[in-house]
UniProtKB/TrEMBL annotation:
PROSITE patterns attached to this UniProt entry: G_TR_2
Domain of life: Eukaryota
Protein name per its UniProtKB record: Eukaryotic translation initiation factor 5B (Trinotate prediction)
Domain Tr-type G: residue ranges: 75-292
Entry similarity comment: Belongs to the TRAFAC class translation factor GTPase superfamily. Classic translation factor GTPase family. IF-2 subfamily.
Listed CDD domains: aeIF5B_II (cd03703), IF2_eIF5B (cd01887)
GO molecular function: GTP binding; GTPase activity; translation initiation factor activity
GO cellular component: mitochondrion
Region (Disordered) residue spans: 1-28
Species: Myxobolus squamalis (Myxosporean)
SUPFAM superfamilies: P-loop containing nucleoside triphosphate hydrolases (SSF52540)
Keywords, alphabetical: GTP-binding, Initiation factor, Nucleotide-binding, Protein biosynthesis
Pfam family membership, one: GTP_EFTU
Amino acid sequence: IPTVSSSEFEKTEKIMIKSDQHSSDISPNDAKFETDICEQIVNLQIKPKPLISDPVLRIESLKKQNVETDSHGVLRSPIICVLGHVDTGKTKVLDKLRNTHVQDGEAGGITQQIGVTNVPFYAIKESTKNIPNMSDFDFKITGLSIIDTPGHFSFRNLRSLGSSLCDMAILIVDIMHAIEPQTEESIKLLLNKKTPFVVALNKIDLIVGWKSIPGKGIEETLELQSVRTKQHFDDLFRKTFTKFAELGLNLALYFQKKSHKLYIPAVPTSALTGDGIGDLIGFICRYSQDYLTKRLAVSKNLEATVMEVKVIPGLGPTIDVILVNGCLNKGARIIVPGIDGPIVSQIRALLTPQPLKEMRVKGIYIHHESMSVSQGVKIAGPNLDAAIAGFPLFVAQYD
């Protein structure tokens, strides 16, 4: 069937309507009008678009068409990766945001897998309601997808995978210890991948005389501390600043509003009291909308990466996938790299955890017919137990 443009279709439609309007006046023996109609249609020179035989070129052509239809009005949820040294409080910071206790289920309190938390819009609004300049902020993002990665030395490959997937990162630094070995490794990963990041100076509740002030932003909370407490904070910050400077990086408190091209923004936080958590979320939202709009434009191109492979009782072989762009539908045929070659499977179930719960936490899943953009999703299907984490997922196309 020939492919026609909208203007060509309109011309053809007008000719056919004209033919229909005059049909009663045409004599059975006089086909001149119909001949004129045919000539006019032929003169439109409607030609079918040539089929691109090379599959690689055909995929690139489809991607180019999809990019032209990208939406820059509504942004997808940014994928945020949480990195840092072991025991700096990465998971506890997320627990504070979710009001859950994921870390209690970890072996020795150490994160052993990459967990994905889908943070809905209402949770963002609630977290940032008391933060200066955020009450009337025009949110264009619909949520946050946060990846919690291991900080232990033995999990360096998982940290590398997490940093490869994210649009932005939170680097958790224990303000009492400054930069530690895995902190430095995480910084190098982020710099190599040119991933923007914000530093969360965690455990400020351990500062001498620290007093938590609920309902206040971190800048105001710092101002209301005693002279002794502020002096201790300044000493610790200078120590951390010096360590970053030794790596060739400048650090500045985020509310000082220094150039993001010259300074790495830092937000003081406490996973124990919740101080600074709203500031951290608010900064991520504002930065995403100010600097990442092109990257966060919703695209039809499928971008999905396998993060973990599990066999779950009642579901069978499953893969945890971070869906960056595009759409996945129940029943679709998917292709993932496997130990013995490509695996062709069919999506039997598309599952997500309850809002503000992690995919790795056992519980009741929500079943979906379709999933799209910036979601952590669990896929159940045959033969997926041999899939390899860290590689992209594809949907089989029949056209």
